[in-house]
Amino acid sequence: MPKRSVYDSDLVEPAVQDVKTGKLSLRAAAKKYGVPKSTIEFKMKNPGHKDTCGPPPILTAKEEYVLVEWIVELAKRGFPRKKEDILNSVQKFLLENPRPNPFKNNRPGDCWFKAFLRRHPSIVQRTSEAVSSASACVSEADIRKWFAEIKIYLKSKDIDMEDPSRIFNGDETGFQICPQTGKVFAAKGEKNG
């Protein structure tokens, strides 16, 4: 298999523009920008062609960004997601936002998940810590501290705490106070997980 050239993809467009406008020859643009001549030629002939190999991703870049942010935020709040949680969320999203995809029942498989992790190296897998019975005992001070942190977080997101329509009944919501151990996903370098 031929070796792929390594170049800054952000420099392809300026190189193409310099050749199109006649500022530089194809060879001079390739040398100046460090982009292969064949790449500049191809981009000139196929301006709308995508830059990546393989089929296009099922989720848009923006949708994947939202998914990554969701994984990171939940891990920060002490609710790291397992692989199954992430796949369930994508399946639910695709059921609510139908589009052609190769998944069985709109549920991505292992190949999609591995490719998703390659596209987003900021998300890493780690083993969650078990919660011992001693640490599961929560004091009043711990609960007050938790509510104070939530209040700070909501204020940082400009969420109005005084609006009565924001009052929700929180019992039977399925929040896991003591998450099960196993492999979970969180932001690279985060201590919690």
From TrEMBL:
Subcellular location(s) of the protein: Nucleus
Source domain of life: Eukaryota
SUPFAM superfamilies with a match to the protein in the record: Homeodomain-like
MF terms in GO: DNA binding
Keywords: DNA-binding, Nucleus
Name of the featured protein: Uncharacterized protein LOC115880147 isoform X3
Chief place of localization: nucleus
Assigned GO CC terms: nucleus
Lineage: Eukaryota, Metazoa, Ecdysozoa, Arthropoda, Hexapoda
Gene coding for it: LOC115880147
Keyword Nucleus carried by entry: yes
Matches recorded under InterPro entries: Homeodomain-like_sf (IPR009057), HTH_CenpB_DNA-bd_dom (IPR006600), HTH_Psq (IPR007889)
Gene3D superfamilies: Homeodomain-like
Keyword Disulfide bond: no
Ranges where the HTH CENPB-type domain occurs: 51-126
